[in-house]
Amino acid sequence: MTEMVYGTVPVQGGEPVLPKWWRTVDRWSLACILMLFGVGILLGLAASVPLAERNGLPNFHYVQRQAVFGGLALIALFVTSMMSPLMVRRLAVLGFLGAFIALALLPFFGTDFGKGAVRWYSFGFASVQPSEFLKPTFVIAAAWLMAAAQDLGGPPGRLYSFGLTVSIVLMLAMQPDFGQACLVLFGWGVMWFVGGAPMLLLIMLAGLVVLGGMFAYNMSEHFARRIDGFLTPDVDPTTQLGYATNAIREGGFFGVGVGEGQVKWSLPDAHTDFIIAVAAEEYGLIMVLAIILLYATVVVRSFVRLIRERDPFIRLAGTGLAAMFGVQAMINMGVAVRLLPAKGMTLPFVSYGGSSLIAGGIAVGMLLAFTRTRPQGEIGEILRGRPR
Amino acid sequence: MIRTPLRPLARILEARQNGENPDAIERENLRIRHEQMRDKSRVRAEGRLLVLGIAFFCAFSVIGARMGMLAASEPAEPRAQVSGHSIIASRADIVDRHGRVLATNMSTHSLYAHPQQMIEPDRAANALAGIFPDIDPDRLAARFKDPKRKFLWVKRKISPEQMQAVHDIGEPGLLFGPREMRLYPNGALAAHVLGGASYGAEDVHAAEVIGTAGIEKFLDEELRDPSRAGAPLELSIDMTVQAAAEEVLDAGMKLMNAKGAASVLMDVRTGEVISIVSLPDFDPNDRPNPLVEGNPSDSPLFNRAVQGVYELGSTYKIFAAAQAIDIGLVNKNTVIDTKPPFEVSGFKIGEFANKNYGELSVEKIIVKSSNRGTGKLALAIGPKRQKEFLKTLGQLDATPLEIVEAKGGAPLFPKRWTDLSAVTISYGHGISTSPLHLAAGYAALANGGIYVNPTLLKRNEPATGTRVMSEQAAATARGILRKVVTEGTASFAEVPGYHVGGKTGTADKPKERGGGYYDDKVIATFASIFPAHDPRYVLIVTLDEPVETSGKKPRRTAGWTAVPVAAEMTGRIAPLLGLRPDFGEPGLEKIFSTSR
C-alpha cells in the first residue's frame, strides 16, 4: 500500500480557492465596499488636513496612514471572506474571547487620551480600541449560541448570549461608550428577532420602551430638556452639530467645490464622526446620496442573500453583521442631519481610524464569507416536492 | 400537543428483532425533526429578514431625504438660542411717586469672541486693551489662542463709542450681542432703596437682568413679570425730597464728624417712606464689592436706616409715657419722684451727668429726659404689658419694608424680659432697633394711635392698621413731644412755621466684643414729628459717632448733633412736601397800612 501512495500527485479537492471565491462571493457588495474605501481616502484628503496642520504634521499624513490601514483592512477582508463559515466561526469565537478579556482589562491598562473615556490600549505607534474588534466577533459568538439553542437537546444559547450581551453593554456603558453599547444591544436584538423571538414578547417590549420613554419624559426634567432640545428646529451654531448642519446647507446639491469647504476647519471631529458633513459641503448632496446608496446596497443585498440561507448559524451571524454595519452608518449620518441625538460613531470604511478600519474589514469579510453562494439543498427540496 | 416520540416503540422492537441497532432509528428521527424545525424557522426568518431589509432601506431613505431637505434649504443665519425657554430681558422701570425715573433699561451691546474665527489674535488683544484699559492684553491673547476655546466673553456691557472702536479693529472673530443694561440715571440717589442689578442667565443674544439687592431683588419677579407690559413700579420715594435729605444729611454728617448717618422720612397716615437715606452710600450703576474683612456695617452697602440696629436711647421714653397714660396709670401732670436712689434688681439707675431732677411731672420727665422717671413708669406698667405694647408697635420684629435688607434688621432684645429689662428698655437701652422701626413707632403716636407698616410702594389712601393706643393718649404724647422742642433738650429743632415736636436720644455705643459701653462713642438720634398739632410726617435722623467740637469740650449729645441736622432738614424738605408754614394769626403790630 505504501508504494502506491508514495509519489502520487495529491488530488485537488474541488475547484481552486480563488476561482471558487470569485464565483460565489457577492461581487456587488464587494464593489460597494471598495468604493466606500475609495470615498474614505478621497474625503480624508479634505477632512484630515486641518488635523494634520494642527498637530504640525505633513498635510496628508493622515491620508497616508488611512491608506496603510486601509490596505491592511482590505487584506483582512479578502482573507476572511475566503474562509469557510466554520473556519470563520472558530477564529471569531477565539477572537471574541480575546477581545472580551481585553475589554474587561481596559480599566486597568487602558488610556483615555485625555478624552474622558477609557477606550484604548496605547502601543506607541498605534492604539487599539478593543470594542471595535469585539462587535463583529460578538455577533459570531452570539449567533453560534443562538443557533445551537435551536437543536433538540442543545444548550440554552439565547439565555447565554443574552447574558454575554448584558455584561458587554455594562462594560461599555462604564467606559462610558453608550454608542457602542447601543450597537451591541441592537445587534443582539436583530439576531434574536430573526432567530425567532416570540411576536407577543416583541410587542410587549416595544410597549414597555414607549411607556418607559413617556414616563422618563414626564418625570425627569433633564431627560425632557434633552429631548426638547433635540426636537427644536433651532440649533446652536457654535456646537459641532450646528456646524455640521450648516455645512450640509452650504453644500447644497452639488457642493461648494473640492477643497473649498470650511467646516473641516472648525469641527474637531471632521475626519471621524462628522466626515459626512465634509462630504456634503464639498461634494454636495450627490455624494451623500451615493454614499448612502453604497451602504444600503451592502446591507439590503446581504439580507436578501441570507433569506435563502438554510444554516441557522450563518443566517443569524450574517444578519447581525449586516445590521450592525448598516446601523453604524445610519447613526453616524443620522446625527449629522439631526435625526438622532449626538453620539460619537464612526462611518465604517470612510472615517479615519486604524482600529475601526481593520475591524470593519474583518467584519465585512466575515459578512461576505457568510453571504457567499453555496448549495442550499435546492435539489433535495425539489425532489421532496417543495420547490421554492 | 401531540408529542411524536423519537424512539417509536413499534419500530424499535421490529429493529431489535431484525438485529439492527435501534439507535439508528432515533438518529434518523432526530435528523428529520431537525430538518422540519429548520424549515419552519427558515420560513419565519425569511419573512423577518424581508421586514428587516425593508426597514433598513426605509431608514436609509429617510436619512437621504433629510439630507436632501437640508441641502435644499438656505444656510440660516446662525442664531444662538437656548432651546426650551427664551430669556426674558425686559424689566420694568422704577419711578418715584411723581413718575420720575429712578431705574430704567438702556440697550447696549456685549462683546464676545469666536477665537477660531480670529485672524490676528495678538493684534486684536492689544487693540482691545487700548480700548478697555482694564484688559490685560497678554492674558487675553493667551485665551484667544487656546485651541479648546470656541467662545469667550470680552465685555458684558460696552458703550456705542467703544463698539465703534472695536469695529475699527476689523477682526472678524469679535462679535457683538444686544444687551439690556439697568441704568440708574440719578447715580447714588436712593442707592440703598434701589439696590442694584446684574446679569443672570445670559447668552449671546440676550441676558436676564436680575436684582442683586434692595427693592430690585425683593420685587425681582414682579419687575420681570411680562404681564406688567412695561408698567413702571411706582415707589413712595419723592426724588426731590430724597435729594435734599441726602444733601443735608451728608453735610451734617461731615459737620458733626460722624462716620455714618441715616434718616427716615415717613408719612404717618399711609406709612409711605418718602425718603430714606443711609450714608455713606454708593452708586448702584457700579456696585462696590462687599467687604471681605472687617465689620460689614462699615461698608457703604450697609443700609443703616434699615439694617443697622442700634440702641436708640431716650427716644424710646415717649413710648413708656404714652403707654402709662393710655392705660390710665398716670396723666401728664402726675408727679413722680425721680430722686436717687432707684435700684432695680440690685442695679442703680442713674441719670445723664448724674443729675438729680427731684420730683417731676410725667410731662417734665420726658422734657428733661429722666431715666429714673421713665423707669418708674415702666415698673408700674410691668414687663409683660410693656413687651406686648412694643410688639404691637412693631418694635420687636423685622420691618416689612420691600427691600431684601429689611429682613436683616431684626431688633435685638433680651429673651427674658425682667423688671430690669423693662426699666432699661423704657429709656432705650437693652433693645436695639433700626431707625425705621423708630419711625414706624413714632408714626403711631403722630397719627392718633394707629400702627401702620412702613412701605416703599406708593399708596394713595391711608393705610389700615391696628390701633395701639387711644387717640387721647396719642394726642397727649404729641403735646409732650412738642414741649421737648419748646422747653427741653431739642430746642435747636424748632423750625419757624412748622411746629416740630420730637425727642432726642443719645446712646453710648456698646463695645463690639462685649463688656460695657464706650464713653466717647455715641449714637445720636432725633425722632421728630411735624407739624406737631396735626402731624403729617415723622423724621428720624441718626448720626453714628458724632462729635461737635465748636465748644470748649467736645459735645456728643443728640441735642447738639442730630437735632440741628434734623432742623435743617425739616426746613428744607417741609416746603418741598407742600406743607404751608403756619405762623399763626399775625398780631396787629405786624400789619402795616400802606395807604392813608
UniProtKB/TrEMBL annotation, chain A:
<keyword id="KW-0328">Glycosyltransferase</keyword>
<keyword id="KW-0808">Transferase</keyword>
<feature type="transmembrane region" description="Helical">
    <location>
        <begin position="349"/>
        <end position="370"/>
    </location>
</feature>
<protein>
    <recommendedName>
        <fullName>Probable peptidoglycan glycosyltransferase FtsW</fullName>
        <ecNumber>2.4.99.28</ecNumber>
    </recommendedName>
</protein>
<keyword id="KW-0133">Cell shape</keyword>
<feature type="transmembrane region" description="Helical">
    <location>
        <begin position="283"/>
        <end position="304"/>
    </location>
</feature>
<keyword id="KW-0472">Membrane</keyword>
<feature type="transmembrane region" description="Helical">
    <location>
        <begin position="190"/>
        <end position="217"/>
    </location>
</feature>
<keyword id="KW-0812">Transmembrane</keyword>
<comment type="similarity">
    <text>Belongs to the SEDS family. FtsW subfamily.</text>
</comment>
<feature type="transmembrane region" description="Helical">
    <location>
        <begin position="91"/>
        <end position="110"/>
    </location>
</feature>
<keyword id="KW-1133">Transmembrane helix</keyword>
<feature type="transmembrane region" description="Helical">
    <location>
        <begin position="316"/>
        <end position="337"/>
    </location>
</feature>
<feature type="transmembrane region" description="Helical">
    <location>
        <begin position="28"/>
        <end position="47"/>
    </location>
</feature>
<feature type="transmembrane region" description="Helical">
    <location>
        <begin position="159"/>
        <end position="178"/>
    </location>
</feature>
<dbReference type="InterPro" id="IPR001182">
    <property type="entry name" value="FtsW/RodA"/>
</dbReference>
<keyword id="KW-0573">Peptidoglycan synthesis</keyword>
<dbReference type="Pfam" id="PF01098">
    <property type="entry name" value="FTSW_RODA_SPOVE"/>
</dbReference>
<feature type="transmembrane region" description="Helical">
    <location>
        <begin position="67"/>
        <end position="84"/>
    </location>
</feature>
TrEMBL record, chain B:
<feature type="domain" description="Penicillin-binding protein transpeptidase">
    <location>
        <begin position="263"/>
        <end position="553"/>
    </location>
</feature>
<dbReference type="InterPro" id="IPR036138">
    <property type="entry name" value="PBP_dimer_sf"/>
</dbReference>
<keyword id="KW-1133">Transmembrane helix</keyword>
<feature type="transmembrane region" description="Helical">
    <location>
        <begin position="49"/>
        <end position="69"/>
    </location>
</feature>
<dbReference type="InterPro" id="IPR005311">
    <property type="entry name" value="PBP_dimer"/>
</dbReference>
<feature type="domain" description="Penicillin-binding protein dimerisation">
    <location>
        <begin position="87"/>
        <end position="224"/>
    </location>
</feature>
<protein>
    <submittedName>
        <fullName>Penicillin-binding protein 2</fullName>
    </submittedName>
</protein>
<keyword id="KW-0645">Protease</keyword>
<keyword id="KW-0378">Hydrolase</keyword>
<keyword id="KW-0812">Transmembrane</keyword>
<dbReference type="Pfam" id="PF03717">
    <property type="entry name" value="PBP_dimer"/>
</dbReference>
<dbReference type="Pfam" id="PF00905">
    <property type="entry name" value="Transpeptidase"/>
</dbReference>
<dbReference type="InterPro" id="IPR012338">
    <property type="entry name" value="Beta-lactam/transpept-like"/>
</dbReference>
<keyword id="KW-0121">Carboxypeptidase</keyword>
<keyword id="KW-0472">Membrane</keyword>
<dbReference type="InterPro" id="IPR001460">
    <property type="entry name" value="PCN-bd_Tpept"/>
</dbReference>
<dbReference type="InterPro" id="IPR050515">
    <property type="entry name" value="Beta-lactam/transpept"/>
</dbReference>
